[in-house]
Amino acid sequence: MSRVHVIGAGLAGLSAAVELAGAGRPVVLHEASPQAGGRCRSYFDAALDMEIDNGNHLVLSGNRATLAYADRIGTRAKLVGPGSATFPFVDLASAKRWTLRANDGLIPYWMLMRSRRVPDTGLSEYAELGKLLWAGRSATIAGTLACKGALWDRLIEPFLVAALNIEAGQGSAALAGQVVRETLAAGGRNYHPLVAREGLSNALVRPALSWLEQRGGTIVYGRRLRALSFEGERATALDFGDERIAVGPDEAVVMATPPQAAGPLLPGISTPTEFRSIVNAHYRVAPPKGLPPIMGVVGGTAQWLFAFPERLSVTISAGEAWLDTPREALAARIWADVAAIAGLPAAMPARWQIVRERRATFAASPEQDALRPGVETPWRNVALAGDWTQTGLPATIEGAIRSGVRAAQWVVEGRHG
Predict the structure, then answer these.
(1) Is residue 5 within 8 Å of 238, Cβ to Cβ?
(2) 282: part of which helix (H) or strand (E)?
(3) In this structure, what are the phi and psi dihedrals at residue 288, rounded to the nearest 5 degrees?
(4) What is the dihedral of CA 305, 111, 142, 272, to 10 degrees?
(5) What is the rounded distance in angstroms from the CA atom of residue 325 to the CA atom of residue 405?
(6) 23: left (phi over 0), alpha (psi -120 to 50) or beta
């Protein structure tokens, strides 16, 4: 079988490599950094003196590509959650707390029950979400929904900001509609929350690397692709600066790099040009007994609070407003929210960390969504993968893994021949 070079060992590249190796194709995985996982990985943080994820990520039970990938590498059990579509929330401005509890079936009878839906909301407000399902590619969320009211403030806006990582009104209504189609509109069984409690690398990265090595895959770190050589409709060589590798006539390349790297390497490829940040705050403190593992936060600086063993962690999506705030001031501000939610002392723990990803995802606006390329390129043996490619979803773990599987299938099916 002919060899396939996968460039980039983030989740898109890993899922492509796993799919290819599962089909019996020899794989060489090239990664520019010293470790795999990209933006979804774990690392040892000296300030906290513990291993943490570089960002908090939520997987849903309906993320079929992610769960199939985890099944294949044997780590499904490492993605854990409550076993139902249960989402606790707190509104710091009003001090209200509630838990959204959806039933598993397709008919959402939970919306009829005040005890299971968002406080101060009526059934008609939920029905308005259906407008997103039919939105055109050029429509924004603000141009599709009213973007006001209790349901918007306490569920829809937090949900869409987390999913799209953009100010909710500016986001693509079509992308939001696809998220709703695969979650709220698909029945509660499709949106049980799942978290990698032992870390993203333990759940989705290290086992995949072991799985690949056991099947003869080659993984090379510290190898940044500098250029590709082309002859006609084919890529013929990979230039890593200190090494040039020929791409044989039956071999293929899967480019699973970020758009900032892929664009200069592949002339003429359209890529997103605007990005949004994510801010994460980590505090080394044991979660108080009874604190939910995941909690939505409204009316504060924090947006989502995650309770891990010996650590509390906060995620703020579309976090541009906090990129230039001094680290200690930002940590103290977020801790004030955490302390109020969890009933902890106002004094900030001694061990804390702020992680700011300035270009975490592409900006999920209609204009930027239109720039996302598909799997094919002008070269018959080069495929694209990445959450920034045209997956139909925003930049998510599920989108990244789907893109890798799709690129691998394109190679295996011989469409590059």
Answers:
(1) yes
(2) strand 275-283
(3) -65, 150
(4) 50
(5) 39
(6) alpha
Alpha carbon of residue 249 to chain centroid? 35
- Cα–Cα distance measured from residue 26 to residue 34, given in angstroms and rounded to the nearest whole number: 22
Name the residue ranges covered by the structural domains of the chain: 4-43+200-273+367-412, 85-191
Q: Are 305 and 313 in contact (CB under 8 A)?
A: yes
Could you give the CA distance from residue 342 to residue 339 in angstroms, rounded to a whole number? Answer: 5
| Structure token digits, residue 30 | 């090239």
Distance separating alpha carbons of residues 35 and 37, to the nearest angstrom: 7
Q: Which residues contact 140 (CB under 8 A, 6 or more apart)?
A: 169, 170, 171, 172, 173, 365, 366
The pLDDT, as a whole number, for residue 1 is 65
Say how far apart CA 360 and CA 283 lie, in whole Å.
Answer: 21
- Ranges in the chain, pLDDT < 50: 416-417
Which amino acid, 392?
G
What's the DSSP call for residue 286?
Answer: P
If DSSP codes are grouped into helix, strand and coil, which group holds residue 219?
strand
Pairing of strands 244-246, 234-239: antiparallel
Asked: is 4-43+200-273+367-412 a CATH 3.50.50.60 domain? The reply is: yes
pLDDT at residue 123, rounded to an integer: 87
Measured from the Cβ of residue 93, the count of other Cβ atoms closer than 10 Å reads 10
Give the Cβ contact number of residue 103 at 10 Å: 17
Predicted local distance difference test score (pLDDT) of residue 223: 94
Query: Quick check: 204 and 198 in contact, CB under 8 A?
Result: no
CB distance 103 to 111 below 8 Å: no
